[in-house]
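lol forgot to send this yesterday, sorry. struct tokens for the thing we talked abt
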């Protein structure tokens, strides 16, 4: 029987007044066995909630009366109380197969669960989706969802997922769209397999069969040193340029046919092809910001707005259902990054501000390069942007979010003393790097700065 473990009870909340305690296990709410926080939320919103609770092996009923829609005040240990639906695909580009040995077990969980798609924006392939799931999505209006497409050609999709059901599971996508569910798609492009003409056909397939898709993100595969897949390799510059040309051509066609751009290429492609990023309005409402699409343009815009004393429009961060779930923990890449906000004041000589070093991934350094002079001017101190090579994963892994403690430590060990070191919080999840280490393990103190342009400017201001 699925149970939800309480990890915290908000002081003064209805749950606290009713005597609920951390460690309690919730068995039922209003007589319903709850499988996940989605059902939990629906029951917890009621003005009268009867909880069947197990504490110390004994079961008891607890009644909570409150205003309808008011939170109970419980934090729960997980979002899904029965088993997370794991993925039965074996994609050759899957990053989980490319992790170095010895990493935390939780990072190796291959989920393919539409509930986590709804809660956290994880992409699902729908290969394990069922009629009952469709009925639940429609009944509870679980929207938006995020679906991995990769190719609309059945054989290519089955080959990429290494799963025969990959050839047919996009029928569920059509059913979701027909029922009015908002769905965002993604295509992970693997050179030689689903790029070039196959990508062109995929976007034709989107227009032809799935015109209701809200957006499709086109992202390159990541290849670490630990892949065992001989077919998987990074894009060449020419291949990246071709991807951009295809997406650009299809944006025009989608605009003409649907009045929307629909397809967006990831920031990484512009860096690989050494092309300027599009203007912010070319990303519309940044529907795939969390997927690395439009982040660079938005970041530079935030820096410029902060320098000009303007408030940058906040766009692109989709909290969705998660914003109003009472009790669900933050998981995956949407977990809180860090609660740390440490400013270390170092002065080399009286009155002279300490030199500043911004540590970032190779791609982040390229993006910062376009505003480096402005940032130096605002800092009023010598400023360096240091790209940290990702030796932990190796390969073509250059995004800042995958930097680990050992990589940052290596750079800090060789850095001169007496500097301020700034590190974006995107490298952390719940205060830890991917390898499990924390900023406290680094050889020098670092200042953790929120990963947006305005926060960086504010951290640099004397
Ligand atoms: S569907 Fe996702 S988790 Fe599953 S093998 Fe493919 S990339 Fe990995």
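and heres what i got for the seq, position by position
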């Amino acid at each position: 029987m699925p149970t939800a473990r309480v990890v915290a009870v908000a002081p003064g909340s209805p749950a606290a007044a009713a005597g609920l305690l951390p460690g309690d296990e919730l068995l039922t709410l209003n007589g319903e066995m709850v499988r996940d926080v989605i059902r939990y939320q629906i029951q917890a919103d009621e003005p009268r909630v009867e909880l069947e609770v197990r504490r110390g092996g004994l079961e008891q009923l607890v009644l909570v009366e409150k205003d309808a829609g008011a939170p109970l005040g419980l934090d729960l240990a997980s979002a899904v109380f029965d088993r997370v639906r794991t993925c039965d695909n074996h994609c050759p580009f899957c990053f989980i197969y490319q992790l170095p040995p010895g990493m935390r077990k939780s990072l190796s969980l291959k989920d393919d669960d539409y509930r986590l798609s709804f809660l956290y924006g994880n992409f699902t392939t729908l290969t394990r989706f069922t009629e009952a799931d469709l009925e639940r999505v429609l009944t509870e209006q679980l929207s938006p969802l995020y679906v991995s497409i990769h190719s609309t050609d059945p054989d290519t999709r089955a080959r990429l997922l290494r799963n025969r059901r990959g050839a047919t599971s996009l029928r569920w996508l059509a059913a979701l769209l027909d029922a009015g569910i908002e769905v965002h798609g993604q295509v992970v492009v693997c050179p030689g397999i689903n790029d070039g003409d196959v990508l062109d056909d995929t976007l034709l397939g989107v227009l032809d069969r799935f015109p209701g898709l809200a957006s499709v993100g086109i992202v390159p595969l990541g290849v670490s040193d630990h892949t065992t897949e001989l077919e998987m390799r990074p894009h060449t510059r020419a291949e990246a340029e071709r991807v951009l040309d295809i997406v650009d051509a299809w944006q025009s066609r989608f605009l003409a046919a649907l009045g929307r751009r629909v397809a967006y290429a990831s920031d990484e492609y512009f860096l690989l092809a050494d092309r300027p990023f599009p203007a912010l309005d070319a990303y519309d409402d940044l529907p795939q910001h969390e997927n690395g699409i439009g982040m660079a343009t938005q970041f530079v815009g935030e820096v410029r707005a902060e320098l000009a004393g303007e408030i940058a429009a906040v766009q692109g961060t989709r909290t969705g259902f998660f914003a109003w779930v009472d009790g669900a923990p933050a998981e995956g890449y949407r977990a809180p990054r860090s609660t740390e906000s440490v400013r270390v004041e170092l002065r080399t000589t009286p009155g002279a501000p300490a030199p500043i070093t911004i540590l970032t991934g190779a791609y982040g350094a390229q993006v910062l390069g376009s505003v480096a002079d402005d940032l130096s001017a605002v800092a009023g101190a010598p400023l360096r942007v240091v790209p940290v090579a990702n030796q932990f994963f190796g390969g073509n892994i250059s995004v800042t979010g995958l930097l680990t403690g050992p990589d940052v430590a290596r750079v800090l060990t060789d850095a001169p003393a007496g500097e301020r070191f700034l590190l974006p919080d995107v490298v952390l999840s719940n205060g830890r790097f991917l390898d499990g280490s924390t900023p406290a393990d680094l050889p020098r103190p670092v200042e953790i700065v929120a990963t947006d342009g305005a926060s960086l400017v504010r951290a640099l201001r004397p």
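The two ends are 57 Å apart (CA to CA). anyway ping me if u want another try
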